[in-house]
Amino acid sequence: MYPVAVDKVAAAMGGRKALGAAIATVGELAAAVEHGLPRAVVPAMAAQAAPEGSDLRQRVAALVVSPATFKRSPRLSPAASERAERLARVVALAGQALGSTAEAQAWLGAPHPMLGDRPPIQVAATDLGARQVERLLLNIEHGLPA
Q1: Which of 109, 119, 127, 145 gives the lowest tally of CB atoms within 10 Å of its CB?
Q2: Smallest Cα–Cα separation from 35: which of 54, 51, 53, 21?
Q3: 75 exposure class (CB count in 10 Å sphere: 0-12, 13-18, 19+)
């Protein structure tokens, strides 16, 4: 099950402008990730994850790819693309569950007691962590205990 509409995930990665194409299905997204996403998705996704002027933007970008690798290559590796997609999926789901970009950014960047007092965006850097964060967000979205 994919927890949020693919077009919202694509928008969290900068949309057509950053991706170079419209992505509307999980299959298209999977193919783009496998091929390697354009590096433009990293700053676009970080901008959706953290407020303007926040040092969290740089930390979110570094969860995807090192600054040196980012500068060196026009495309992300498939592994870095998976990390970018995972974080964008969490960002999109946070916006959907919490109702606004500002609320999502605040929630993603604040330590959460159910995540070991770590910020959800940091926890979501791993597959297992992303699943934990997604579960919390789905509970919030459906009015269940988080």
Answers
A1: 145
A2: 21
A3: middle
Question: Which runs of consecutive H residues, i.e. helices, occur in 1-146?
Answer: 6-12, 15-19, 26-35, 41-49, 56-64, 67-72, 78-98, 101-109, 120-123, 127-141
Tens digit of each residue's pLDDT (9 = 90 or more) over 91-113: 999 999 999 999 999 999 999 99
**Distance from the Cα of residue 113 to its chain's centroid:** 21
The number of beta carbons lying within 10 Å of the beta carbon of residue 34 is 11
Give mean pLDDT, residues 17-29. Answer: 96
Q: Which of 98, 131, 85 is nearest to 107 (CA)?
A: 98
| Full-model pTM | 0.94
